[in-house]
Amino acid sequence: MLDVENVKSWMTKFNEQIQAHHDYLSELDTPIGDGDHGNNMARGMNAVMEAIADKDFTDVPAIFKTIAMSLISKVGGASGPLYGTAFMEMAKVGDGEVSALLPAALAGIKKRGKAETGEKTMVDVWAPIAEKTDFTADDVDKAVEATKDMIATKGRASYVGERSVGHIDPGAMSSGYLLKALLEVEE
Amino acid sequence: MLDVENVKSWMTKFNEQIQAHHDYLSELDTPIGDGDHGNNMARGMNAVMEAIADKDFTDVPAIFKTIAMSLISKVGGASGPLYGTAFMEMAKVGDGEVSALLPAALAGIKKRGKAETGEKTMVDVWAPIAEKTDFTADDVDKAVEATKDMIATKGRASYVGERSVGHIDPGAMSSGYLLKALLEVEE
Amino acid sequence: MKKIINDPKNVVDEMVQGLVRSYPEYLERIPETGVVYRHDLKNIQGQVGIVSGGGSGHEPTHAGFVGDGMLSAAVCGEVFTSPTPDQIFEAIKKVDSGAGVFLVIKNYSGDVMNFEMAQDMAEMEDIKVKSIVVDDDIAVENSTYTQGRRGVAGTIFMHKVLGAAAAKGANLDELEQLAQKVLPNIKTIAVALSGATVPEVGKPGFTLGEDEIEYGVGIHGEPGYRREKLQPSKALVEELVGKLNQEFKFEKGDQVAVLVNGMGATPLMEQYIFMNDVLNKLADLGLEVKFTKVGSLMTSLEMAGISLTLFKVSDEIVENLNYATDTIAW
Amino acid sequence: MKKIINDPKNVVDEMVQGLVRSYPEYLERIPETGVVYRHDLKNIQGQVGIVSGGGSGHEPTHAGFVGDGMLSAAVCGEVFTSPTPDQIFEAIKKVDSGAGVFLVIKNYSGDVMNFEMAQDMAEMEDIKVKSIVVDDDIAVENSTYTQGRRGVAGTIFMHKVLGAAAAKGANLDELEQLAQKVLPNIKTIAVALSGATVPEVGKPGFTLGEDEIEYGVGIHGEPGYRREKLQPSKALVEELVGKLNQEFKFEKGDQVAVLVNGMGATPLMEQYIFMNDVLNKLADLGLEVKFTKVGSLMTSLEMAGISLTLFKVSDEIVENLNYATDTIAW
Ligand SMILES: Nc1ncnc2c1ncn2[C@@H]1O[C@H](COP(=O)(O)OP(=O)(O)O)[C@@H](O)[C@H]1O
Ligand SMILES: Nc1ncnc2c1ncn2[C@@H]1O[C@H](COP(=O)(O)OP(=O)(O)O)[C@@H](O)[C@H]1O
Ligand SMILES: [Mg+2]
Ligand SMILES: [Mg+2]
Ligand SMILES: [Mg+2]
Ligand SMILES: [Mg+2]
C-alpha cells in the first residue's frame, strides 16, 4: 500500500532514471521513431518534480492527479497522454493498493492508445507486470527486452513495419524504469 | 592583316583553349569571384562557333559583328558585354589591321567596364599588348601573371579587396588565351 | 549541429515570439502557450473555427496558414512533438464563437491522443467539436490493424479546402462531410536528400551518403522505404508519380491539384524543375491539372528533399482551392 | 553535388518552365528567353513598367515578385550570371506601354553593363528608360574608385516601394527620384553557415568547418569579412545590427523596416528566432519598427545563413511597403 511519501520517492527514483537515460531513450527512439522520447520524458519529469516538491498532498489520489496533469500538459507526443492517462486512472483507484493501481493504469493506456499486447509499445511492459501479483526487476527487464523481437503496429515505429524488429521500444524502456522504481519503493 | 578565314581560325583556336581550360577558368573565378567564368566563356564560344561555322562572310567586320552578337547574347555576366563590346569595336575598324583592331577593342572594354589599368581585370592584359606594335606569347603571359599581385577594384574581385592579391584574374587569363590564339594565326 | 538558435530548449518559444512580432497584422498569441490565432477573430464570429497544430519544425505549417480563408488558430508543440491537450483546448476555446470548432489532426498516435483529450475537455464545456485525421503519406503500408498512414504535406490542402468552406459559412456537420469526402483523394510521397537535426537532440535522425537518397521518408526523420543512388529529377518523378498512380489508379481525364513541397533545405530552383517534370508526367498519364502550388510549406527543419502531393479534385473543390485567402504562407 | 535537377546546363530553362506552368495566373514567358512578365499586363497600360532581373539561383527573386504592385517583368539569367542585353531588351519592350520602363539593377559589373546595353538598345527604339543600381550590402568597403557595394536582399524593398509607386501612377521621373531617395536608406549584411554549389560548377564556392560561420558573404558565394566559431543567434544579431548601426548611425525614434532573409537552406524556425533577437536589439537602440518581413526571399541556392536588411523609412514609404500586392512570393 503506497502512501504519499512513497509516491514522492517513486517519482524521485523514476526521475533519476529518466534524466540519467535521457540520451539513451532518444537513441532508442531514433531508428524506429523520431528521436524525442528522452526529451519528452525528461521535460515531463522535470515538471512533475517541480509540481510535487515541497507540496503537501492530502492523499495518494491527489498526488497522482498532480502527476497526471503535469505529464499531460508538459510531455506532448504519444507518451504524454499515455503516461498522463495511466496516472489519472491510478488516481481513480482511490488508494495506494499496487495490485489495483497497475491494472487500472494498464487499462487506461490500452484505451487511450487503442493498443493491445504484441504491438511493440509500452503496453507490452505494463501488461505482463500488471497481471502478476508479485513482480521482480527481472520480469520487467524481460518484458522490455521482449519488445525487441516484435513488429510494431502502433505508434511511430509502425511506419517502419518489419524493420522495427531488433530495436527495443523506447516507451517500453521508460515504462520499465517506472516499474523498477516502484519496486525499489515497495522494498 | 586578317581576313575572314584568319578570324575563323582565330576563333577556332581560342575556342579550343576555352573548352580545354573551362574548369581552370572557373577555378580562378572561385576565390575572387563567383566561379562561373569558365562556364560563361564556354557557353559563349560554343555559340560563336555555331554562328560562324559553314557561313560565308563578305568581310572581316561582318564576322566580327556576328561574333560580338553571339557573345553579347550568350555569355551574360561581366565578360559577355566586355568581349562583346571588344568585337563590336573591332568590327567598326573596317578591316583586319591588327595594329588598329587591338586598340579599338581595348578602348571598348575600358569604356564598357569603366576600368583603367591596374584594377586587376582583363584590361591589364589588353592594355600592354594593344600598345605594342609587336607582341609575343611571353608578353601576354607576363601581363596575365602580373594581375596576380594587383588589388582588384573593379568586378566581383573588388569585393574581397586586398584578399584578391595572389590570384590571377580569370578574365585576364581568358584574354590571354584570345591574344595568344591571335599570335598563332598571324604567324 | 549548426543552427541559428540560442538555447535548444527555448527554440519553440522564441520562434513563436519572433513569428507573432513579425506578423502582428495576422497573429496573436495566447500568453504562455504555443497557440497563435487570427488577429481578426471578430470578423469570423458565427463561423466554425478551424484549429490545426502539431509538433514544431514544419514551418510555415501550421501558424503560417492562420488567417482569412484558412485556419482560425494553430497550436505549436515542441519540435516534432504533438502539443498538449490543455493548449489545444485553449485554442478551441479561443476560436469558438458558438458554431463549434473543427480540428485538423495529422495521423500520429501522439497527435491523435492529445487532440482527442482536448476534444473531451471542450465537450465537457459544451463546445461542439468535430475533427478529421489526415493520413496522406502513402509511403507507409495501410491497414486497419496498425497506426495507419502519416499525415504530411497533403494536410495543407485539407486546411485550404475546409478554410474556404468555413469562410463561406459551412456548419460543423458540413465541414465534417467535406473533410471525409476529400480525405481519400489526397495522397503524398516524399524523397529525402538529407536528414534533419532536432535542436534538443543535436544529431540528425538519419544520415545519407554523399550520393544517396531515400524514398518515402516522413516529416520527422522517419525512415523511408528504399535508399538508392541520387537520380535525376525525371527519375524521381517516375518513382513518386508511379507510386501515387498505383494508389489512385488514375484514369485519363481525372482532375488533380498538385503540391510540390520543399522539405526545408531544398531551394525553389529544384522544386520548380521537379514540378516541371511532374507536369510532363501527369500530362503523359492524361490527367488534367487544375491547381498547382510550389514551395517549402510542410518542412522538416533543414532536411533536403521534396514531397509530391496529388489531390483528385472536382470543380467544386478547385473553387475552394482558389478561394481568396490571406495568410502569411499560402 | 546533391540536387534535384536533370542536366546542369538546363537548370534555368527547366526552372522557368516549371515556374510559369505552376503559376499561369501570374506569369507568362517570352518564348526562348528567360523573361517572365505579368499575365495581366493589359491591366497596367499607361503605367511605368518595372523590370528587374539578374542571375538565377536567388529564387523566389526576381520572378516571384512579378505581379500587381511590384514588378512588371523579370529577366532570369544563367545561375549567378547576369542576363544578356537582348533578353533585358525583350523585357523592356514587352512591358512598355508608352510611359517608359524603370530598371532595378543589382550592383555587379555584369548586371550593370548588360542592363546598360539593354537601355541603349531601348533608347534607340525610342523607349524611355531610367534605372537604379542597388548597392545595399555593407559588408563591402565603399569607394568611388571601386565597383562599390553589392546589391542583395534590400533590392526586394526597392521592388516593393517602386512597384507600389508605379501602381499608384508615378511617372518615370518620379520613380527615379523615389528610388534615389530610398537607396541610401537600405542596408544589408549577411552571415553564412554553409556555401552553395552552382550546378554547372559542381562544387561549393566556399566551404566552412562543422562549427564555422562567415560574416559578410554575398549571394553568389563571394567570401565575407570574417570567419569564426558558430555563435548563438543573439551574438549574430549583435554583430550584424552593430555593423548596420555603424553605417546608419541611428538615433532614438528612427523608423525602420526589417527584412530577415533566409539564404536558402536555413529553415523558417531559425529565421523567426533570429528576428526575435533582432527586434529585441532594435528596441534596445530605441528604434521604431514599422514593418517586418521574414522568409527565404533572396536566396543563394542551398546556402545556409541569413541576411538582415534595415530600411530607414518615413510614413510615406511604410505606406508603399504595405500597399496591396499580388505576387507569388511577397
Ligand atoms: N498507440 C499507442 N499505444 C500505446 N503506446 C504507444 C502508442 N503510440 C506510441 N506509444 C508509445 O509511445 C512511445 C513513443 O513516445 P514518444 O517518443 O515520447 O512520442 P512520439 O511517438 O509522439 O514521438 C513508443 O515507444 C510507445 O511505447
Ligand atoms: N568593370 C570591369 N572592367 C573590366 N573588366 C571587368 C570588369 N568587371 C569584370 N571584369 C572582368 O570580367 C571577369 C569576370 O567575368 P565573369 O566571371 O564571366 O563574369 P561575372 O563577374 O559577372 O561572374 C573578371 O575576371 C574581369 O577580368
Ligand atoms: Mg518519439
Ligand atoms: Mg564570374
Ligand atoms: Mg515526437
Ligand atoms: Mg557570374
Automatic annotation (TrEMBL), chains A, B:
Keywords: Glycerol metabolism, Kinase, Transferase. The keyword Kinase applies. One of its GO terms (biological process) is glycerol catabolic process. The keyword Cell cycle does not apply. It is an enzyme of class 2 (transferase). GO terms for cellular component: cytosol. It catalyses: dihydroxyacetone + phosphoenolpyruvate = dihydroxyacetone phosphate + pyruvate. Its EC number is 2.7.1.121. InterPro entries: DhaK_L_YcgS, DhaL_dom, DhaL_dom_sf, Dihydroxyacetone_Kinase. Residues 5-184 form the DhaL domain. Pathway: Polyol metabolism; glycerol degradation. One of its GO terms (molecular function) is glycerone kinase activity. Homodimer. The dihydroxyacetone kinase complex is composed of a homodimer of DhaM, a homodimer of DhaK and the subunit DhaL. ADP-binding subunit of the dihydroxyacetone kinase, which is responsible for the phosphoenolpyruvate (PEP)-dependent phosphorylation of dihydroxyacetone. DhaL-ADP is converted to DhaL-ATP via a phosphoryl group transfer from DhaM and transmits it to dihydroxyacetone binds to DhaK. This is phosphoenolpyruvate--glycerone phosphotransferase. It comes from Pediococcus pentosaceus. The gene is dhaL.
From TrEMBL, chains C, D:
It is an enzyme of class 2 (transferase). GO terms for cellular component: cytosol. Pfam families: Dak1 (PF02733). One of its GO terms (molecular function) is phosphoenolpyruvate-glycerone phosphotransferase activity. It comes from the Bacteria. Its EC number is 2.7.1.121, 2.7.1.-. One of its GO terms (biological process) is glycerol catabolic process. Keywords: Kinase, Transferase. Residues 7-330 form the DhaK domain. PROSITE patterns: DHAK (PS51481). SUPFAM superfamilies: DAK1/DegV-like. Transmembrane segments: none annotated. NCBIfam families: dhaK1 (TIGR02363). This is Dihydroxyacetone kinase subunit DhaK. It comes from Pediococcus pentosaceus.
